[in-house]
Amino acid sequence: MTYVTATLTQLSNQPFVTIKARGQRITQAVDVSQMIVKRMNTVGYIIKDVRIASDSLLSQDGKTRNVSTIEIDISKE
Predict the structure, then answer these.
(1) Pairing with 59, which of 24, 27, 40, 44 sits 20 to 30 Å away (CA)?
(2) How sure is the predictor about 41, in pLDDT bands with cuts at 50, 70 and 90?
(3) What torsion do the CA atoms of 44, 77, 6, 2 make, to the nearest 10 degrees?
């Protein structure tokens, strides 16, 4: 719920907010965006854009790992 509050605070001052996450935190980013859009439907927030990608990272054991990333743009209608 902390991320939802922080995002709503930013949306009160900015025209849009981008929620970014990677790896196992992608589900949390999606949950935050859905809470804002669906539970604050009287305010009129919408998901403007969603971008997905993957980054190649070098792990501690020297292997290259692909990590998924997501960026979700939320704005007022």
Answers:
(1) 27
(2) confident
(3) 40
**Vertex 13 angle, CA 7 and 16, to 5°:** 60
CA 57, distance to chain mean position in Å, is 20
What is 2-76's CATH number, 3.30.110.20, 2.60.40.10, 3.30.499.10, 3.40.640.10? Answer: 3.30.110.20
CB 56 within 8 A of CB 5: no
* Residue 6: count of CB within 10 angstroms of its CB: 13
Stated pTM of the model: 0.88
CA separation for the pair 24, 13 (Å, rounded)? 29
Q: What was the pLDDT predicted at 27? A: 97
